[in-house]
Here is the input.
Amino acid sequence: MKKHLKTIFAFAMAATMIFAAAGCGSSPEPTSDEQNVQSTEGEEEAEAPSESGDTLIMATNAEFPPYEFYEGGDVVGIDVEIARAVAESMGKELHVEDMAFDSIIPALLSEKADIGAAGMTVTEDRKASVDFTDTYVKASQVIIVKADNTEITGADSVEGKVIGVQLGTTGDLYASDVTDTVERYNKGFEAVQALSQGKIDAVIIDDQVAKALAADNADVKVLDEPFTEEEYAIAVKKDNTELVEQINTALKELKESGKLQEIVDKYITAE
Ligand code: ARG
Here is the structure.
């Protein structure tokens, strides 16, 4: 069970960071009046090209509450608010592009988007294709099982089971480490649905997302024992040093002013 730990980023995380023991539950007000959400289908409208200097285009996958999710027609969440604050500090307007999670890095490489903000875990693999800013959140992968499941109690007992994940995520990676039967879904929500329908044995997904998804589903429970420790950062196209520096400056300011914590607290209620 320890073998996948080698592949994980074992950061020494600043003690000031968030999420000591946080649960999810608040339902934040949308604050996205100025936000322009565009799905990839609407791409041909080319409303806010990356080249237009006053827009910062954020690629995300809005199936990831509380970091990014739809509220009405708008994508809201922790990442959206952080990215908007970063954009503001650069004198730019944020423009959100919702796409499949595994399209985010390609969108950066092809310059369709400037930043990837999607609860994206820093991994060595991804670092080969994109650069990451400083991290802004600590997270972990956790296991979700049926509420009445007494057999799967943690990382060791999930080995060899049918595990559902969101395609292309670190959950996908770790599940593939412990079983040959991984069911990949486009949305974490679909994995949890399959679990409650008894189609799969467990789901491996990010902790806060697990809590958010399980909160809506009495058939399932989230196991306490974290499967991995991870950290999220914003991804940008490689060698875009200036942009990384600008974002890091903005993130530092958000951390120091307490604004980052405020954003997190708005979406995650501490237990
Ligand atoms: N933290 C995980 C990863 O980086 C999952 C991220 C999924 N994000 C999303 N917006 N759907 O692989």
Observations:
- The first helix runs from residue 78 to 89.
- Residues 147 and 156 are 18 Å apart (CA to CA).
- Helices lie at 78-89, 104-109, 124-127, 170-178, 188-196, 207-215, 241-257, 259-267.
